[in-house]
Amino acid sequence: MDRRQFFKTSATVGAAVGAAVLPIKDLRAANTKENKEFIGVLVDTTRCIGCRSCEVACSVTHDNFVPDVKNDNALEKIHDTSDKQWTIVNRFKTEKGDVFVKRQCMHCWQPACAAACLVNAMAKTKEGPVTWDGDKCMGCRFCMVSCPFDIPKAEYHSWNPRIQKCNMCYERLKEGKKPACVEACPTDTLMFGTKRQLMEIARHRVYSHPDKYVHQIYGENEVGGTGWLYLSAVPFSQIGFRTDLGTTPYPEYTKQFLVSVPLILFGVPALLLGLNELTDRKNKLRENQGWTNPGEEDE
Amino acid sequence: MDSYPYAGFQTRLETGAHMEFYYYVNIFETKGLEYLLLLSFLALFIVLVRYLSVPEKKNPVPGEKTSTTAGS
Amino acid sequence: MNNTAVFTSEFNRVFKFFLQELKPRGKWLTPFNVISIPIIIVGLIILYFRFVYGLGSVTNLSQDFPWGLWIGFDVVTGVAFAGGSYVVTFVVYVMRNEKYHSIVRVTVLNGLLAYIFYAGALVLDLGRPWHIVNPIIGNSFGYNSVLFLVSWHFLLYMIAMFVEFSPVIAEWARLEKVRKFLSALTLGAVIFGITLSILHQSGLGALFLMAKPKIHPLWYSEFIPVMFFVSSIYAGLSMIIFEGTISHKVFKHLIGEGNHHHYDEIVLGLAKGAAITMFVYYFFQALLFIHEKRWELINDFWGYWYLLEVIGLVLIPCCMYAYAVRNRNLGIIKVASVLALLGIILNRLNVSVITFRWYAVDHYYPSWQEIVVTLMVISVEIWVLRWIVTRMPVFKHD
């Protein structure tokens, strides 16, 4: 057998063995098999009566601080979620009356927090909810810096702090149940489903009642799209939503930099070695012609 | 208006109408000025490098004069 | 004598030598000691409270302001100051410019200590510092994260700098064969170190790219990483000049007389590099100013604050450096270095803390405990530097 024959044979044998052993055919199928659509929640603020059952249900389910909705005056002031409450309701006084708005993690399609997390403690699950894993978290709070909605909250007064934010009741979803807040809501303000279904419902509501709603579904395109969608009777800036967040998914802002990392790791060492070689050559030539480096004469 | 924790200030995006795609936006608006800046940078850079190219002085050895004119 | 016997006897000798060297020399009641010892003691007490009662008990960090002085100053600014080591090793080992050889050892030492202590300060700021091994041991690699890259680069860069500095340690312990071996690794470590530096200096800037709606538009741009990298060059050069001024007074007895004269030429050379770099950086800022149409934002407090930073603490020290190099005026260079360093501090703090959520009603300011711990970190670093410099041949030429 000559060399050429040897290479041809081994190549074909190798390919045959590879095709038999490696699940090449199955890999493509594996890619398309698991495609579930993301789930989310539609919040129709025109239906909310501010009963705050969602706050209570959420805190009860997750062992957090349960607010005394009858006696505390939490609605008097605009406030934010905290390290003790994953969701809160705010009351806004607008020209169309009182508008109640439930706020919590938006479960973005491309979350900034998950892109920021260097240990994948914050991660987007395949089903849609963005969850936090305490076994991995170092408490660096980079997720808090990156979130455009300022949602993650840290337990600053604990020696072993957690990052607190809504996880869309991921453990309940695994059991086939809806998020606790959605189940507790008495007025159908909260509707649970896939984002595709919710978008169609939301559009339908806006088209059917064009005077009742502002013609925008908040979360459709904001920050590249979020899992939680909002409908409102008044402009969103009046009910505590930032309208300047852009439509670019936030991880895209770091893509340019992360892409240049391997480029620099490939290019710079080669460039530096090249410069080193050139200067060595230049110095050798100079010395041969009787020139010396500045400063060398003194040593 | 109360000071909401989220929105309460006019950001440039709101005033600049960048999020909506229904208005004319020229993203190359400042390109002319940028090229002018680049040219002036290159010119001034050459000036700067020439300004800074000062020949080095040798180390003063104690006792040795650096000047050869008497009485300086 | 066989090899193991030689090895054991050498090991014993070095070990005994090291233990003996741990003993303090010199006076106890120097001004620096009198100030730094109470700071260190109070700092340690504060750290006890921080670890037992949580970060909130000693810092002014909040849900709105997750990063404060420790990240903004200790880590982000501190690392910029340590940029001198990659610049100087580039000039000496890559470009083979022997003029700066005498400052390589002390600059690399300063850089190594800076990274060790500022990475240490980072650990103090973590909520669950024991999980810091997670991104290292492969338990959980968050490849998508800029911070993952920054932390790995910190680790690798510290190793590279340690390799660059290790010949000095070997020389001190009189392990000649080890020193030769380590010296051969220097160019590789330098090239590796420069590459890593480019990435993590810019990486620290890239951390803030996703905070676009929260950082004031006069400071935010997609080019923050480039700006951080370029400014780290002159930050490092200015720090070498600044620290060198102090070292040459404090450690005068360790530096030979000839080196003092030679050092003036070095300072002029460093100032020249700083002038050019600051000029480039200033024009980068001007380009961004035009591109982002920042003239629309100039007419309020933040506009003036921006002008203070870019004109007062970049353009002016740049001109001072240029004038001083031309006229060989070392006094002006020293003042310029201080102004340039202040400009760097201001820039880094502006991006990371001061203009972060600039619109907030109650803005973050550091608590006294945060300030004391920062001073403690710097003090301990200087203690270690002093210990090393007075014993190891740092100011000697290799």
Share in helix of chain B: 25-40%
Low-pLDDT windows of residues of chain A: 295-299
Give the beta-strand count of chain B: 0
Beta-strand portion of chain B reads under 5%
Task: State the helix count of chain B.
Answer: 2
Mean pLDDT of chain A: 89
Structural classification of chain A = alpha+beta
Give the C-alpha Rg of chain B.
29 Å
Q: Which oligomeric state applies?
A: heterotrimer
Q: State the distance separating the first and last CA atoms of chain B.
A: 77 Å
**SSE order of chain A in H/E notation?**
HHEHEEHEEHEEHHEHEH
Biggest interface between chains: A-C, 63 and 67 residues
What's the CATH architecture of the largest domain in chain A? 2-Layer Sandwich
Q: How can the largest sheet of chain B be summarized?
A: none
Low-confidence stretches of chain B: 1-10, 13-18
What is the overall number of helices of chain A? 9
Short recap of the structure:
The complex is a heterotrimer of chains A (299), B (72) and C (398). Chain A has 299 residues and is an alpha+beta fold. Chain A has helices at residues 3-21, 24-33, 53-62, 112-116, 142-146, 170-174, 180-184, 195-208, 252-288; strands at 39-44, 88-94, 97-103, 122-124, 130-132, 153-154, 163-164, 190-194, 228-231.
Topology:
The complex is a heterotrimer of chains A (299), B (72) and C (398).
Chain A: H1 3-21, H2 24-33, E1 39-44, H3 53-62, E2 88-94, E3 97-103, H4 112-116, E4 122-124, E5 130-132, H5 142-146, E6 153-154, E7 163-164, H6 170-174, H7 180-184, E8 190-194, H8 195-208, E9 228-231, H9 252-288
Chain B: H1 12-16, H2 31-52
Chain C: H1 3-21, H2 31-53, H3 69-81, H4 84-94, H5 104-125, H6 134-137, H7 146-172, H8 176-184, H9 186-206, H10 224-250, H11 257-291, H12 301-326, H13 330-354, H14 368-391
Helix pairs in contact in C: 2-14, 3-5, 3-13, 3-14, 4-5, 4-9, 4-10, 5-7, 5-14, 7-8, 7-9, 9-10, 10-11, 10-13, 11-12, 12-13
Q: How would you explain this protein's 3D organization?
A:
Chain A contains nine helices and nine strands. Chain A has helices at residues 3-21, 24-33, 53-62, 112-116, 142-146, 170-174, 180-184, 195-208, 252-288, and strands spanning 39-44, 88-94, 97-103, 122-124, 130-132, 153-154, 163-164, 190-194, 228-231. In chain A, the strands form four sheets. Chain A has a three-stranded mixed beta sheet with strand order 8-1-9. A two-stranded antiparallel ribbon of chain A has the order 2-3. In chain A, strand 6 and strand 7 form a beta hairpin. Chain B has two helices and no strands. The radius of gyration of chain B is 29 Å and the shape is rod-shaped. Mean pLDDT of chain B is 68; it is low at 1-10 and 13-18. By secondary structure, chain C is mostly helical. Chain C has one domain: Formate dehydrogenase/DMSO reductase domain (Formate dehydrogenase/DMSO reductase fold, Up-down Bundle). Chains B and C meet through helix 2 of B and helix 11 and helix 12 of C.
